[in-house]
């Protein structure tokens, strides 16, 4: 790591101790920009295309141009210079409407905020972290007699689970970065079957004898192609991929009960804590998750379309 990059890492960890001490710079195309005083900043551009069979195609546009800025301590000035080069470079590719430019930046580093906004970016996602509690997890709290019943999902529940996942996807697409595709149901079904078969970390909530919610969870490392690589402390983390509550069941404790069950399973030795993505533009998740102990560590800024 160069002295320039070390300066940026020091800045990040000083702002937020949850950020990994050593950043992960992906392999890609290097972009450089010069400031008026001659200082040079750089970034790494990675282009990813999420095809029709990809789950990632539900989380945002198919054609993704992601920039990892390496600004040292140049702050907003360095970000402004690099974003200009970024926009020019993407424009050369003439991307279509289903495209996006993204920059992932520490949530607590607010200095470049107005610069990102001026370049047409919007904060559409947070990577949020909940450290594992110091005390061993207590048993999941029983719900009242008229409250939700939580159980592990089985293969025969997949039909109901897909319906619940579609509800969440439609709401997330209306309020934030997700995208509803023609084959959304098929992709969600495949993902849920895989989670049940390999991990068993899918819960279903029943209320009044009806399916009312789901939680799809698991664990992941911080190495290799993990989205957590260089973002949070190294080790193993639990994650909540999807939490969905049927519209008719909202406000009745379903989401809280599902989250308690998930945390009970994920808060084990060897796991640092739990992570998830939520959109600050989603009026439900932006309130729900902070109440469950999560706080933004990284923010995903997006400009749609990419050019």
From TrEMBL:
Q: Which Pfam families match?
A: Acetyltransf_1
Record bears the keyword Transferase: yes
PROSITE patterns attached to this UniProt entry:
GNAT
Q: Which UniProt keywords apply?
A: Transferase
Q: Which GO terms describe its molecular function?
A: acyltransferase activity, transferring groups other than amino-acyl groups
Q: Which InterPro entries does its entry note?
A: Acyl_CoA_acyltransferase, GNAT_dom
Per the database record, which ranges form the N-acetyltransferase domain? 148-307
State if Transferase is listed as a keyword: yes
UniProt superkingdom: Bacteria
Name of the featured protein: GNAT family N-acetyltransferase
Q: Which organism is it from?
A: Amycolatopsis antarctica
């Amino acid at each position: 790591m160069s002295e320039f990059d070390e300066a940026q890492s020091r800045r990040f960890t000083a702002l937020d101790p949850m950020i990994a001490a050593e950043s992960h710079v992906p392999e890609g195309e290097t972009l450089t920009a010069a400031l008026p005083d001659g200082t040079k900043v750089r970034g790494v551009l990675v282009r990813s295309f999420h095809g029709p069979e990809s789950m990632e195609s539900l989380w945002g546009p198919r054609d993704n141009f992601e920039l990892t800025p390496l600004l040292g301590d140049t702050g907003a000035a360095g970000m402004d210079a690099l974003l200009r080069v970024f926009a020019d470079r993407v424009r050369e590719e003439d991307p279509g409407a289903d495209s996006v430019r993204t920059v992932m930046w520490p949530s607590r580093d607010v200095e470049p905020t107005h610069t990102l906004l001026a370049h047409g970016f919007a904060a559409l996602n947070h990577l949020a972290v909940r450290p594992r509690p110091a005390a061993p997890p207590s048993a999941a709290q029983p719900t009242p007699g008229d409250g939700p019943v939580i159980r592990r999902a089985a293969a025969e529940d997949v039909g109901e689970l897909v319906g619940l996942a579609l509800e969440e996807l439609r709401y997330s697409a209306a309020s934030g970065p997700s995208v509803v595709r023609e084959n959304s149901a098929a992709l969600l079904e495949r993902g849920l079957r895989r989670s049940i078969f390999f991990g068993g970390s899918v819960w279903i909530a029943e209320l009044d004898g009806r399916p009312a919610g789901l939680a799809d969870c698991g664990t992941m490392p911080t190495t290799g192609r993990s989205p957590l690589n260089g973002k949070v402390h190294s080790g193993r983390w639990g994650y909540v991929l999807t939490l969905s509550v049927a519209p008719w069941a909202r406000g009745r404790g379903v989401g809280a009960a599902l989250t308690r069950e998930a945390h009970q399973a994920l808060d084990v030795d060897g796991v640092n804590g739990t992570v998830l993505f939520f959109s600050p533009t989603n009026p439900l998740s932006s309130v729900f998750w902070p109440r469950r102990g999560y706080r933004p560590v990284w923010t995903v800024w997006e400009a749609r379309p990419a050019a």
